[in-house]
Amino acid sequence: MQDACAPGIEQDARPTANAPEKRVFIKTFGCQMNVYDSERMADALGAAGFVETGAPEDADLVILNTCHIREKAAEKVFSELGRLRVLREARRQDGGGNLMIAVAGCVAQAEGEEIARRAAVDIIVGPQSYHRLPELIERRASTRGPVIETEFPAAEKFASLPAPKLRAAPSAFLTVQEGCDKFCTFCVVPYTRGAEYSRPVAQIVEEAKRLAERGVREITLLGQNVNAWAGEGPSGKTWTLPDLLAALSEVAGIARLRFTTSHPNDMSDALVSAHRNLPKLMPYLHLPFQSGSDRILKAMNRKHRMEDYLRIVDRLRDARPDLALSTDIIVGFPGETDADFEETMRMVERVHFAQAYSFKYSPRPGTPAADRAEQVPEAVKSERLARLHALLFAQQTAFNAAMVGRTLSVLWESRGRNEGQVVGRSPYLQPVYAEGDPALIGHIADVEIAGASQNSLRAVIKNLDVDAT
């Protein structure tokens, strides 16, 4: 499972079969939380008469939902805006009417003024204000320049959004926590998402029930620091994440639960115990450690040492021996020496990760680390990352290979690339493909793993009996 704010996803809005009067195209960059946010933007706009289209050429409104975690994220946004400007001019010349352009998400929050100065956009909206998109569209009609909304009303956002519309999928994301109070020196999240905010229990459980009614079998709880979630319970008492997971385990129809992304400092004994006590909580956890060097961790303001991280890993594996771990690692943080990097390599060898997301450090404007003098040369970062990738590749390949011959339960999610093939996810989040009837989609069935690669598993469906829950 990927970090809730890690790079790797670019997703376009799903096409609709109708030909509406007002059409919106949403291009999503970055993390799972942005995917969730894009769906909720579509919900908010749907209440205002917009429906989604799969192509910007067909849209009346194009939204770029941006992520600031990627290197050169702003440059990528400006490049995309350049293409949209050409499309808008061509439409005007052909008499096709106007194309409204909006930039949403973390780049909009962090660099809204620069976007307004450099690009001809209509709306700039931060990640905590997208529930106001219908209002901002109306305001733009009577305003000369772009409408900019970059406040942090997280509670207002969730209270104002309409109920999610029907989207047929066996798994779904559900944001329960946003923002960050940790202020790691390399990270922009506290500046783009604001302070930590936890949604109340009643809101989350109600959304989970609606998802289950639509056929969702697996829910992934999202948050920048999801294990710091502390929401108001039904009696007014504050609940913690283990309490919430236990409540969601009781929602009829939900067979699997996951959560991401966790911070080591918030991995409580109760949450460790939840991995032992809740059968629906999948045996896979994303737990970033970022660097194996205590000296670098201190410079990152991570507030944990490697001794702390290893102690957590041991506790988790005692509670759930089959638990698999993934992580995030930054290579070449300012001041990182060869000795610091070797400590990271030893850390990876010690823990053994099923999957990991590793990146060369790149400065994020406005973060403390960006101004540090001891920047590591790019060639050194590249060499270190190549070595780390080789080790992580070997570990992931070995983890998948160890699945061959085992029986795993798979949630089938979609048709495969080939005719008569279905694709799903194992409890460890591995993609699994097999020959099978598309009627399996949305169900969980046992398979025998017949082959493995670094990125996926090949399976044989053992029987056609599927779960009835």
From TrEMBL:
Q: What is its EC number?
A: 2.8.4.3
Family annotation (NCBIfam families)? miaB-methiolase (TIGR01574), MiaB/RimO family radical SAM methylthiotransferase (TIGR00089)
Question: Which InterPro entries does the record associate with it?
Answer: Elp3/MiaA/NifB-like_rSAM, Methylthiotransferase, Methylthiotransferase_CS, Methylthiotransferase_N, Methylthiotransferase_N_sf, MiaB_methiolase, rSAM, rSAM_horseshoe
Q: Which residues bind [4Fe-4S] cluster 1?
A: C31, C67, C106
Among Pfam families, the record links this protein to: Radical_SAM, TRAM, UPF0004
Q: Alphabetically list the UniProt keywords.
A: 4Fe-4S, Cytoplasm, Iron, Iron-sulfur, Metal-binding, S-adenosyl-L-methionine, Transferase, tRNA processing
Q: What is this protein called?
A: tRNA-2-methylthio-N(6)-dimethylallyladenosine synthase
Which intervals of the chain form a coiled coil? none
Quaternary state and interactors: Monomer.
Location in the cell reads: Cytoplasm
Question: What protein family does this chain belong to?
Answer: Belongs to the methylthiotransferase family. MiaB subfamily.
Catalytic reactions of this protein: N(6)-dimethylallyladenosine(37) in tRNA + (sulfur carrier)-SH + AH2 + 2 S-adenosyl-L-methionine = 2-methylsulfanyl-N(6)-dimethylallyladenosine(37) in tRNA + (sulfur carrier)-H + 5'-deoxyadenosine + L-methionine + A + S-adenosyl-L-homocysteine + 2 H(+)
Question: TRAM domain: from which residue to which, for each copy?
Answer: 401-463
Sequence positions that bind [4Fe-4S] cluster 2? C180, C184, C187
This molecule's function is given as: Catalyzes the methylthiolation of N6-(dimethylallyl)adenosine (i(6)A), leading to the formation of 2-methylthio-N6-(dimethylallyl)adenosine (ms(2)i(6)A) at position 37 in tRNAs that read codons beginning with uridine.
What is the protein's species of origin? Rhodomicrobium udaipurense
- Tell me a Gene Ontology molecular-function term this record carries: tRNA-2-methylthio-N(6)-dimethylallyladenosine(37) synthase activity
The organism's taxonomic lineage, starting at the top: Bacteria, Pseudomonadati, Pseudomonadota, Alphaproteobacteria, Hyphomicrobiales
Cofactor(s) essential for the protein? [4Fe-4S] cluster
